[in-house]
């Protein structure tokens, strides 16, 4: 599904250049649930941004579902993001004046799905994350965990190839974190490919594979026995 | 464009910044208000001019004589040029196709007396054609006719004010009034719209006055109208020919305007049209300058809005919004604010004009109004202005990098 070869990325900070990714080689199969771990500054967020086409690499190859991701202009990147990727952010990033259902429908809007179908689909996905009754509430009326579940529903709505979650539990207490992880695991059980960036070992343990980044290189890449979040909920 | 989601967003931003949107919109509305009022004022001025001039026939030409200012053709300067009856015959014979009506004019002042009332008035001795040239409107009785003219009849057509002064409530028709001691029979009373002084004039047959002043054939000036089918160019060309001819006849230097002057209404109309065109241009210019301030204001509010919404734009981009979709959103919002505020300004101007416009009836300013053309132009200007105001902020919005927008955790 994802194939990365010798990926480099540096940031220019004034006259200095900060080499953040120093040759990453890594691939993800269909249906995997991968945790990307590392301390802050290890390059894990940069890697996720490049995977998410929010940022471009300096050199190296990136293939997503067989499509080479290279030299994208803004419009093309927007199309690919919409088609291939679903994002889950630490701070949820819901649009605060739109109801939960409208937020979920937004990626469908950019796919030019008709209004009626958008509404039906967004309700269906909210039902999937257990928030059907909250469909017409604004984000400000929801708890943190509920907001993140809306965000997950939004990421799923576009039916992407890969879900990218950047510290999805970073802003949540541990109980809510486990609820969210439980949801992510269930979505993964249905065959969705998911990448989770986290620095919390217990969250990483709930994935099926852990990739450790340190100073811009992968220092460890291992399959783990998945801890089910269900038992903590 | 007619997407509910797009409008939902526009209304949301406006709702969030009600006061700011109102203040900025006000500047645009105010600009349009001033623009429309200025244009309406120019229209009012133009209407005023035209009603004043329409008092006389639009196709009239006045030829007057004076004293030469230049030596020419063997004559020295300071020679008095005097028109005579044969000048009229000469013009008639020279321009048989061009002349519609022609009349000599001889101006004299008189002391008029009827019973115990006396008054001092100016007498305009004219030919019957003069009624058509001056567009004299009869209130009662008749104008001077050919019989009066040929018979040198002592008849007079008096202005409404003269009739009021001398006859009070009496009907003046058929009564005899003394002009410098000579009895004249009043055959008609005329009126003149608006101008009281024009109603303090007495018309009498030219021939009668020429006989009173010693059997002369002298004229002060010549009034005529040309073929009404002539357009402006033909009219100006005819008055040029007339001027050349008259100057040659009286051995006057072609550039000597003091000796013989030809005054053409067409020329005056042309001048007024040019004058009001300049005024209109100035009006539009001033309106535009004020509008620019409004546009900058809208641009400013859009920049702020986008700054506030950077994160939202970032989210949208991460979810697959294309830059063009973001640009459209911002420009549509800008056009919306501009158009609504502009229309409010337009509506206010229109209401004020509709209420006070018809009540203004000063001679130089009549019925200020705005034409459909102005409204259509203003609408186009507003939409263009909205696009211009939104363009820079929109480009800024399109450049928002989702990664930067989303990074503030």
TrEMBL record, chain A:
According to its UniProt record, which protein family does this protein belong to?
Belongs to the ABC transporter superfamily. Macrolide exporter (TC 3.A.1.122) family.
Its lineage opens with: Bacteria, Pseudomonadati, Bacteroidota, Flavobacteriia, Flavobacteriales
User: Per UniProt, what is one GO molecular function of this protein?
Assistant: ATP binding
**Which organism does this sequence originate in?**
Croceivirga radicis
Pfam families of this UniProt entry? ABC_tran
Cross-referenced InterPro entries: AAA+_ATPase (IPR003593), ABC_transporter-like_ATP-bd (IPR003439), ABC_transporter-like_CS (IPR017871), MacB-like_ATP-bd (IPR017911), P-loop_NTPase (IPR027417)
**PROSITE patterns to which the protein is assigned, alphabetical:** ABC_TRANSPORTER_1 (PS00211), ABC_TRANSPORTER_2 (PS50893)
Give the CC-aspect GO terms. Answer: membrane protein complex
**Protein name as annotated:** Macrolide ABC transporter ATP-binding protein
Which residue range or ranges hold the ABC transporter domain?
2-233
Q: Which UniProt keywords apply?
A: ATP-binding, Nucleotide-binding, Translocase, Transport
* SMART domains named in the record: AAA
TrEMBL record, chain B:
Q: Where in the cell is it found?
A: Cell membrane
Q: Which domain of life is it from?
A: Bacteria
Please give the Gene Ontology molecular function terms for this protein: ATP binding; transmembrane transporter activity
Per UniProt, the keywords (alphabetical) are: ATP-binding, Cell membrane, Membrane, Nucleotide-binding, Transmembrane, Transmembrane helix
Q: Which GO terms describe its cellular component?
A: plasma membrane
Residue span(s) of domain MacB-like periplasmic core:
21-235
Protein's recorded name: ABC transporter ATP-binding protein
- State the species of origin: Croceivirga radicis
